[in-house]
User: Which sequence fits this backbone?
């Protein structure tokens, strides 16, 4: 397995888009991890309100006097935390259910009906309405996202498992008396991992977009401000568009969202090219 | 899945959504109804009352707008339809065309340029792009109005003036919605087209001496569209939900803005009503897409 | 004069694992009206050779040498000029009719579009001609079949449709790539009989690993191994008196001759050995064969072989 990983990393290095995306993401992750050391102030601490950028507050302060730059840096934590956690949880649920549905025929029909249900019901409206009925908090947001994002992963993993199940080496393993969990763990799971990684990246991308949107319309956690929440605060401010305030209050937070999404899109694109060779070149033979 | 099974499954889902609408507020521990539910009637009776009133188009009373929810929704529906309709028409055509061209010219400058441009645009949250448009095209350059669907309190001498005014107000929101949605269709078309262009029958077409553009148009496009249609549901779902954010930013008085208003005003009947309409609309689109797919793929038609 | 002459043809593909040398210096000639069989096992480069004549290979492929068709070197032609030749002058029957026909277009339309393009007929006339073509390949109720989709055709019928498609514009040269592959034995015989009939006045390059099919139809046979030709002779001579050890081994591996397989494995086209390509599997090899690479030498009139046993 480790040799596969090394081969994979080597191939990934050849994708310029993939490396750019990875670089941007790493930048944000480092910012999130080292936030307390990078941010000039505690983001909750209040100073003079709506100050223009000056030497004390490089990006000024918001309507209650919190330093915007610190909010921005700590916002990295909130946004990335919600995204990563929710996507990992949903990947875990999706992969497990996909493996079970694909491998054990008796669970397949039942599980797939549920997946179909989740897939047909429009996700974001339902997420919005559930979030609207809950208390705004980071954990509720994570819960709500994980609740819906597992279904596509489950379906994709299940298809792959169905194909893998019929491979000769699985039959051979069974003939030798290998137990189901052993087969799942040793033969099927490693082949499924690349797909899971791709799904993780794509789902994360969606969650960041959705989370910023939800926070923007007021469903975010006011105590743990993500970038979307910052934009929500900015939007509520009456003269946000007429004066120049948008330049330091709105633009940086929005651009952070854009670049995070961009990085995940790039990474996802590079990974998909690796997993599906037809996108890379057309062969005749 | 034949027609009857499909219709039945859609009806089941509609039923589930309507029921969810009823049960959700009652299920939430810290939800709005936890304190004020009139629990003098048993839940089942409340449920049947709810279903019955739905049949009559009674969706409750909007506390923030002080009017029946149904009326509020109907007033706003036309603006959302206008916005979504216009945007969809544009981005579907542009998205598919650009995706096809990109796949055809894969690796060359056109492809790379389109790829970078559209991926970047798709990475903008719609409300952020909207805000940027308001600032630059609305205020700085004063080219377009910043909010609303129409200029109020103005009498236009001709209906043409009204139409022009509406289009003027529609431009920025539609542009925002279109630009943020194109990326998805573009990438899907490009991927699907690349898959198709690698197929053997494309080689056969080339062996007959047909031109590349003819092949893309006549042989590849139809095959490439099939998987996209199955995803149209997903795409339109994304767009309809994108409307929620775009309308809010532009104060465009459609159903999407009602969602944001209802949330901030804690007007739950209105929120539920809006959710219902949005969910049903997305389902309707799914259904139509399913029907179109069956019509297009001759292999499925036989069944 | 020959209708097709390949001179020092080389086709190389760069891949992630190295350069695939699919065709290595092939010299071949097809006379007017000659039907030449190109025999070899899977992966020896014969399909690539066929495709290179049609210039259907990917842009990344390196093609060197000359391919002269009716006096013109078609490797030097522009893409637009080449398109006028494809389907009209040289037509190819591609492998695997199941995936080579577009599933969402009617069969009749797929035949008619080439006719419309090359012969300038309008839609209705082209359609009528397409029906005629289906009839000429012995498909019953051709009128009805023309309006059907490929998945409604059986395997044998699909192959016939591919043949009809190739013949539609009356090409001078036909390249047939494995037309009998994957078909039942009885269908195979029908297709062979059909091909023999419809290509009577035409020149053809018949690519196959089915020696029996080639024997039925072709006047001459060229044997290909590891990207190069190793033997060329009249069909009767190849069977009566095969020279190259590979050809002999090939014949012996046929069901009718004893099913004796050739030992060893087909060589990779990326790492080719320096001496004779067949050396590792040859029972008559000598030390010279390992080091030196034999040339193709004409032993008798119309009989060439690439082997140190004879040169």
Assistant:
């Amino acid at each position: 397995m480790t040799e596969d990983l090394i081969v994979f990393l080597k191939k990934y290095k050849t994708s310029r888009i993939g490396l750019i995306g990875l670089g941007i993401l790493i930048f944000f992750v480092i910012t999130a991890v080292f936030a307390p050391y990078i941010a000039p102030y505690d983001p909750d601490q209040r100073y003079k309100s709506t100050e223009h950028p000056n030497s004390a507050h490089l990006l000024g302060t918001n309507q209650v006097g919190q330093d915007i730059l610190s909010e921005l840096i700590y916002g990295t934590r909130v946004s990335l935390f919600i995204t990563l956690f929710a996507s990992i949880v949903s990947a875990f649920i999706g992969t497990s259910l996909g493996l079970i549905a694909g491998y054990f025929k008796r669970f397949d029909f039942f599980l797939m009906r549920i997946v179909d249900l989740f897939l047909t019901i429009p996700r974001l409206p339902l997420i919005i309405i559930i979030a609207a009925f809950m208390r705004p908090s980071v954990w509720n947001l994570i819960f709500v996202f994980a609740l819906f994002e597992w279904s596509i992963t489950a379906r994709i993993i299940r298809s792959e498992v169905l194909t893998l199940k019929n491979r000769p080496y699985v039959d051979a393993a069974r003939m030798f008396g290998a137990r189901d969990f052993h087969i799942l763990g040793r033969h099927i799971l490693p082949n499924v991992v690349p797909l899971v990684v791709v799904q993780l990246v794509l789902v994360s991308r969606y969650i960041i977009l959705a989370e910023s949107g939800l926070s923007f319309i007021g469903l975010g956690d006011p105590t743990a401000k993500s970038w979307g929440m910052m934009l929500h605060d900015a939007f509520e401010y009456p003269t946000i568009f007429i004066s120049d305030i948008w330049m330091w209050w709105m633009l940086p937070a929005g651009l952070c969202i854009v670049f995070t999404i961009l990085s995940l899109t790039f990474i996802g694109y590079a990974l998909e090219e690796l997993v599906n060779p037809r996108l890379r070149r057309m062969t005749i033979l | 899945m034949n027609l009857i099974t499909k219709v039945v499954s859609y009806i089941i889902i509609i039923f589930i959504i309507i029921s969810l609408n009823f049960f959700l507020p009652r299920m939430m521990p810290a939800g709005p109804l936890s304190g004020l539910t009139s629990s003098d009637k048993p839940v089942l009776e409340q449920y049947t009352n709810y279903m019955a009133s739905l049949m009559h188009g009674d969706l409750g009373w909007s506390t923030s707008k002080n009017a029946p929810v149904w009326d509020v929704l109907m007033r706003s529906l036309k603006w959302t339809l206008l916005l979504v309709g216009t945007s969809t028409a544009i981005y579907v055509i542009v998205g598919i065309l650009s995706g096809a061209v990109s796949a055809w010219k894969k690796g060359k400058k056109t492809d790379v340029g389109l790829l970078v441009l559209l991926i970047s645009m798709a990475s903008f949250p719609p409300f952020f792009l909207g805000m940027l448009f308001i600032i630059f095209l609305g205020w700085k350059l004063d080219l377009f109005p910043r909010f609303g669907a129409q200029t109020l309190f103005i009498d236009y001498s001709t209906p043409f003036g009204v139409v022009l005014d509406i289009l003027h107000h529609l431009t920025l929101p539609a542009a925002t919605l279109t630009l943020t949605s194109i990326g998805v269709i573009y990438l899907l078309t490009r991927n699907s087209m690349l898959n198709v262009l690698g197929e053997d029958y494309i080689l056969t077409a080339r062996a007959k001496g047909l031109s590349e553009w003819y092949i893309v148009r006549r042989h590849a496009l139809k095959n490439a569209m099939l998987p996209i249609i199955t995803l149209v549901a997903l795409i339109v779902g994304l767009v309809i939900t994108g409307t929620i954010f775009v309308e809010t930013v532009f104060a465009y008085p459609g159903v999407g803005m009602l969602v944001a208003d209802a949330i901030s005003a804690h007007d739950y009947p209105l929120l539920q009503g809006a959710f219902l309409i949005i969910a049903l609309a997305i389902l309707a689109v799914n259904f139509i897409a399913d029907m179109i797919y069956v019509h297009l793929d001759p292999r499925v038609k036989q069944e | 004069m020959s209708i097709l002459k390949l001179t020092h043809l080389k086709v190389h593909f760069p891949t992630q694992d190295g350069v695939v040398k699919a065709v290595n210096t092939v010299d071949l000639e097809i006379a007017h009206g000659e039907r030449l069989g190109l025999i070899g096992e899977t992966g020896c480069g014969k399909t690539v050779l066929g495709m290179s004549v049609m210039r259907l290979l990917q842009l990344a492929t390196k093609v060197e040498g000359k391919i002269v068709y009716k006096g013109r070197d078609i490797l030097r032609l522009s893409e637009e000029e080449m398109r006028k030749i494809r389907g009209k002058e040289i037509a190819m029957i591609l492998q695997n009719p199941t995936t080579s026909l577009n599933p969402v277009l009617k069969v009749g339309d797929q035949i008619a579009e080439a006719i419309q393009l090359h012969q300038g007929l309008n839609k209705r006339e082209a359609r009528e001609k397409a029906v005629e073509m289906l009839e000429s390949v012995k498909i019953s109720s051709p009128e009805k079949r023309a309006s059907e989709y490929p998945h409604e055709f059986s395997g044998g019928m699909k192959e016939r449709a591919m043949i009809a498609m190739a013949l539609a514009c009356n090409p001078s040269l036909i390249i047939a790539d494995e037309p009998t592959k994957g078909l039942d034995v009885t269908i195979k015989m029908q297709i062979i009989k059909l091909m023999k009939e419809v290509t009577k006045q035409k020149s053809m390059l018949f690519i196959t690993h089915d020696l029996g099919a080639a024997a039925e139809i072709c006047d001459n046979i060229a044997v290909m191994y590891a990207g190069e030709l190793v033997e060329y002779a009249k069909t009767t001579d190849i069977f009566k008196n095969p020279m190259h050890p590979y050809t002999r081994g090939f014949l012996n591996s046929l069901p009718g001759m004893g099913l004796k397989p050739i030992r060893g494995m087909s060589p990779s086209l990326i790492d080719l050995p320096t001496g004779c390509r067949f050396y590792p599997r040859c029972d008559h090899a000598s030390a010279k064969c390992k080091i030196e690479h034999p040339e193709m030498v004409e032993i008798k009139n119309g009989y060439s072989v690439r082997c140190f046993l004879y040169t």
